[in-house]
Amino acid sequence: SQQGEEDPQALSIQEGENATMNCSYKTSINNLQWYRQNSGRGLVHLILIRSNEREKHSGRLRVTLDTSKKSSSLLITASRAADTASYFCATGAGGTSYGKLTFGQGTILTVHP
Amino acid sequence: NAGVTQTPKFRVLKTGQSMTLLCAQDMNHEYMYWYRQDPGMGLRLIHYSVGEGTTAKGEVPDGYNVSRLKKQNFLLGLESAAPSQTSVYFCASSYESWEQYFGPGTRLTVT
Fold first, then answer.
1. Are strands A10-14 and A107-112 parallel, antiparallel or unpaired?
2. What φ, ψ does residue A95 adopt, rounded to 5°?
3. Å between A106 CA and nearest CA of chain B
4. Which of A42, A88, A92 sits opposite B97 (nearest CB)?
5. Of A25, A111, B94, B95, which is the most exposed, with the fewest CB atoms less than 10 Å away?
6. Tens-digit pLDDT profile for residues B34-85
7. Cβ contacts of B103 on chain A, cutoff 8 Å
8. Which of B104, B110, B109 is nearest to B6 (CA)?
């Protein structure tokens, strides 16, 4: 079963606007990761946030993690047409999980030029 | 560095046929994974390996077998393909429990 649920399922914005995607999960985690998938391609890792971190930045990406609410958000600022893709959150349990990740169903982001 | 490569990129099988998907990585990663992705869904873990000679079941292992004879290769086998195995298959590798690096995928259709 899917650990993460993402919201919204689809998001359509104009270039230059900010895009926010949310992810909720059910069980305790060691880390949470965000991946991007362009149409017909493999997934590309964007950012990893550990369970003891609350916020992390990477370029135009900002990720927050609230372990008390079992939720995370990914903010893409000043979006570009090239950001059009599907975005997935994935949770890792750590310990003896051997790096296994459980993926959400993804958010399809469309950025219009 | 090629990263993670998958062979073949596309394949069409008839029900009952068998095939092997090959995944190779040149990053010296210990951990390797096989996922399937179905329309509108995230990735589901089929099998994984934490080192040469070791394999373990993931979330949806039925109908698949795997082998990790060499550290850099992870093979996924379908012994008797079924239409329900029509999917896009992704291989990934990682250094311990950190970010995973994905291959480009294999699109499999079973008729």
1. parallel
2. 60, -125
3. 6
4. A92
5. B95
6. 999 998 778 999 999 999 999 999 999 999 999 999 999 999 999 999 999 9
7. 42
8. B104
